[in-house]
Structure to design on (589 residues):
């Protein structure tokens, strides 16, 4: 896969999310980890332990920022104070790219703190792309948008979710953080073939991949990030890297977090697929 | 750049759809934690939701939106639960949940971070004493202390002044700034040790079974009933990235509060004279300032008016 602005992070390997229960272990044991993903909002503070921990992590590891509250799909302008704080953090971490979700979550200055689904319309794609461009121009760092898991669909939608994603990223000229667990969750909730999604995104724009576990209920699946990755999601991951090549991969585990070694071990399972891909590439 | 009319309409349409959905997502749940079956105007919610959410072969439009409605409240309650363990211990689980729901309904989050969820809680509690009766004043004390803890945890710390930085300056004109992470509290109850105990228990609970959690929680409520009513003063601050509750003498509180409100050093010290402290007032105040400067509580110098 040729290098391009969105898919040249082939040396990033496999990372995990930096989470509070693992701080002491990481700082004391300094385990070998390719990189850590941080939730930007957890470190957009003015001081104290979060930043002190982050600085210690930055001395040892590469860090990539992932946000949960930019709400690219909200037609309201981004909050300037939010952007200024985020930019300060970008300078501190020197993140090579920054990701947030293709969703909305606030309206009229009130925040739901959720990643709410978009209506898949051309008009919404235009509005979203404009906001992504504005944020990227302010932050001066490549931006990637992540597909969310969803539980509802809108009557007004004019296209599939992956067509909407393509429409947005082409208009915004930005990268994709492809969450294969979210694709699986949404495919079960909305009855589509998840491989159609993975096959339908522009491979050259995928800068990062997320993998995670979820919870199954009788009538739907909830994206809970509190279980190991299941086989069907690994199969989607395998297909994704066949298409996009070796790409920065991250395991999300946010609730009922087990030991650092267990989380890291789960993430490293991705290696067998990356290794298989490399073997196939060598043979070819 | 002025947007063209079609683009304005596009934005307005998207905005209206999101406003409608947000309204549904943020509406309070029923007593059984389900979505309300009646909409704000009395129509069945199902009719309203059907207009914009598609059903599927397993869930109705109502049920699909209900997932978001429930998740919204579960997430915010969880956050509130973690931020106010002391208040929860005093009130008990059910009254605390009722309080959280009332507060969050009237004060939805206006910040990108959940960290600020409780920023208007103290004001809300004072305006709604029934929600915390018969322990309202104790609840106010705890809410103030727990918010001060949040502020101390990650607010800014400016480059502190040292005692030497103050020498030779005119006390009549000198205005000191107190660190943004420092909160001064006058409390009616001895809540500091109580909260420290609760936080320690919470730390232990994270590694204990659910059965243990219930037992420990009840122990917390029992202790709260025995809390003494005693006026006391605290400085909640951060030192070397740890949060501390430092007891203050009444004179120290008066002096620091005056400085925090912008009084000159001379004017702030003048307020102490009324207290008629024993011993050498000048030496006492110098010692206080030496301690506070060592803790890094002062920064910058406010320009004199």
């Amino acid at each position: 896969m040729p290098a391009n602005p969105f898919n040249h992070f082939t040396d990033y390997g496999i990372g995990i999310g930096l989470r509070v229960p693992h701080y002491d272990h990481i700082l004391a044991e300094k385990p070998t980890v390719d990189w850590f993903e941080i939730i930007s909002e957890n470190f957009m503070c003015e001081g104290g332990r979060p930043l002190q921990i982050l600085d210690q992590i930055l001395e040892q590891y590469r860090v990539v920022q992932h946000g949960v509250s930019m709400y690219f799909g909200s037609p309201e302008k981004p909050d300037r104070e939010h952007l200024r704080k985020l930019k300060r953090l970008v300078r501190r971490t020197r993140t090579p790219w920054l990701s947030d979700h293709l969703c909305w979550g606030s309206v009229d200055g009130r925040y739901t703190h959720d990643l709410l689904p978009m209506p898949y319309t051309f008009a919404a794609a235009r509005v979203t792309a404009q906001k992504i461009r504005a944020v990227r121009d302010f932050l001066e760092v490549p931006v990637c948008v992540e597909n969310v898991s969803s539980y509802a669909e809108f009557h007004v939608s004019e296209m599939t979710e992956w067509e909407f994603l393509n429409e947005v990223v082409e208009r915004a000229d930005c990268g994709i953080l492809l969450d294969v667990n979210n694709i699986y969750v949404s495919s079960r909730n909305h009855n589509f073939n998840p491989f159609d999604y993975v096959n339908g995104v522009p491979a050259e724009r995928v800068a990062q991949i997320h993998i995670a576990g979820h919870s199954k209920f009788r009538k739907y699946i909830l994206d809970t990030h509190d279980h190991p990755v299941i086989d069907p999601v690994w199969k989607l991951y395998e297909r994704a890297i066949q298409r996009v090549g070796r790409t920065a991969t991250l395991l999300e585990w946010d609730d009922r977090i087990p030991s650092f070694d267990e989380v890291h071990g789960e993430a490293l399972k991705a290696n067998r697929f990356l290794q298989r891909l490399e073997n196939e590439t060598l043979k070819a | 750049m002025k947007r063209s009319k079609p683009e304005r309409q596009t934005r307005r349409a998207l905005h209206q759809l999101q406003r409608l959905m947000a309204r549904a997502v943020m509406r309070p749940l029923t007593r059984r934690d389900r979505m309300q079956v009646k909409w704000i105007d009395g129509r069945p919610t199902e009719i309203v939701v059907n207009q914009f959410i598609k059903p599927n072969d397993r869930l109705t439009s109502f049920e699909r939106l209900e997932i978001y409605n429930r998740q919204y409240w579960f997430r915010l309650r969880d956050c509130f639960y973690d931020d106010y363990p002391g208040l929860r211990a005093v009130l008990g689980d059910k009254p605390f949940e009722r309080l959280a729901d009332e507060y969050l309904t009237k004060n939805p989050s206006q910040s990108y971070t959940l960290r600020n969820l409780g920023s208007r809680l103290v004001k809300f509690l004072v305006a709604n004493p029934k929600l915390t009766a018969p322990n309202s004043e104790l609840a106010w004390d705890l809410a103030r202390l727990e918010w001060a803890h949040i502020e101390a945890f990650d607010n800014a710390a400016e480059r502190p002044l040292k005692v030497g930085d103050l020498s030779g300056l005119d006390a009549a004109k000198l205005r000191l700034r107190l660190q943004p992470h420092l909160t001064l509290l006058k409390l009616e109850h001895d809540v500091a040790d109580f909260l420290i105990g609760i936080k320690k228990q919470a730390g232990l609970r994270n590694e204990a079974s659910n059965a243990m959690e219930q037992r420990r929680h009840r122990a917390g409520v029992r202790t709260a009933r025995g809390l003494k009513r005693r006026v006391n003063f605290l400085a909640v601050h951060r030192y070397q990235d740890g949060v501390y509750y430092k007891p203050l003498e009444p004179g120290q509180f008066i002096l620091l509060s005056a400085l925090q409100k912008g009084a000159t050093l001379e004017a702030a010290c003048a307020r102490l004279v009324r207290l008629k402290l024993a011993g050498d007032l000048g030496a006492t105040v110098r010692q206080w300032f030496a301690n506070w400067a060592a803790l890094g509580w002062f920064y910058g110098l406010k320009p004199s008016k």
The longest strand of chain B covers residues 229-239. Chain B touches chain A through 50 residues (CB under 8 Å).
